[in-house]
Amino acid sequence: MPELKDRLKDELAEINWQDLLPHAKRDVVIVVKKELNILDVATAIAQDNSIAVSNWIEQQLISKPSSEQLTNWNGEPNKQFWTLIIQPFVVIQEI
């Protein structure tokens, strides 16, 4: 679905951790490691591609933020992330 990926590319935003904190408190943040393209991950989630998403989870390429990550990011509220909203999730990747 190229049009979905194009739309998501237009929605890709650079947001600091402080603005992502409310989403983290709701436990809806998904962290994408740098090895993956955030647009590919967001597209797979939006299309409910459970095979791709399961593989990435197994390979630990996408996950909920760890307590260590949360501690680090809380200490650095202006840290920047690429961000996409795929209801109900907020998909993020460190810049």
Secondary structure tally, helices: 5
Strand order of the largest sheet: 1-4-5-2-3
Count the E strands.
5
**Residue runs with pLDDT of under 50 for 5 or more positions:** none
Strand content: 15-25%
Order of secondary-structure elements: HEHEHHEHEE
Distance between the termini: 26 Å
Query: pLDDT average, as an integer?
Result: 96
Q: For the CA atoms, what is the radius of gyration?
A: 13 Å
Largest sheet: 5 strands, mixed
What number of structural domains do the residues give? 1
**Which outline best applies?**
globular
Q: Helix/strand/pairing class, anyone?
A: alpha+beta
Helix coverage percent of residues?
40-55%
Protein name: DUF2288 domain-containing protein
Organism: Stanieria cyanosphaera (strain ATCC 29371 / PCC 7437)
Pfam families: DUF2288 (PF10052)
Q: Would you mind describing this structure in some detail?
A:
- The protein is α+β, with helices and mostly antiparallel strands and 95 residues long.
- It has one domain.
- 47% of the residues lie in helices and 24% in strands.
- The protein is built from five helices and five strands; from the N terminus they run αβαβααβαββ.
- The chain has helices at residues 2-11, 17-25, 38-46, 50-58, 67-74, and strands at 13-16, 29-32, 62-63, 80-86, 89-94.
- It has a five-stranded mixed beta sheet.
- A hairpin with a 2-residue loop joins β4 (80-86) and β5 (89-94).
- The longest helix is centred in the N-terminal third of the chain and has 10 residues, at 2-11.
- The mean pLDDT is 96.
